[in-house]
Design goal:
Helix content: 10-25%
Number of domains: 2
Number of strands: 7
Strand content: 25-35%
Radius of gyration: 25 Å
Number of helices: 2
Structural class: alpha+beta
Low-confidence stretches: none
């Protein structure tokens, strides 16, 4: 297992160098325990980053702080709601979207999706970028009950 982890670390490092990403100034040391069950990790710093690396980190931080993330709720291909646009938290690169959707549907949907969208401030034309689209479980999809799509037996008119 230790050899597999080291190979993955090296593959990630090679890809980052190939794409000219700023490399982390750290070395991962992985050791297999004596009983071949435990895997021991040690992350060591190998010096201070130079000016080029510091500038790249600052650029990433500024891009993250300018970016906004929001979600769209899509039912049967139609956008029915969206969250507020929220700033990305630095340096964790996470977002707290705490909006609650209250949606009323009259027939059981065939598909419900949540689309995660990012808008990077400073990008040309400031367009939205779909980061991911998640298929959600349809609430009540397993229930066998009558819905508004059932046949009407008799209609009554009420005077109000």
């Amino acid at each position: 297992m230790a050899a597999q982890i080291m190979k993955i670390w090296q593959d990630i490092k090679d890809i980052r160098e190939e794409k000219r990403y700023v490399a982390t100034f750290a070395d991962l040391k992985v050791h297999q325990g004596n009983d071949n069950k435990d895997v021991l990790f040690k992350l060591e710093s190998r010096g201070q980053p130079g000016k080029q690396e510091e500038a790249a980190v600052e650029n990433n931080r500024n891009r993250a702080l300018k970016s906004r993330v929001f979600c769209k709720l899509i039912i049967d291909g139609e956008e029915v709601a969206r969250t507020k646009k929220m700033q990305i938290n630095w340096p964790a690169y996470d977002v707290d979207l705490l909006d609650l959707f209250q949606i009323h549907v009259f027939t059981l949907p065939t598909k419900i999706q949540l689309e995660i969208v990012m808008n990077e401030g400073g990008r040309l034309f400031n367009e939205d970028l779909v980061v991911d689209k998640l298929d959600l479980v349809i609430p009540g999809g397993h229930v066998k009950s009558l819905t508004s799509a059932s046949r009407s037996i008799k209609e009554y008119e009420f005077d109000g």
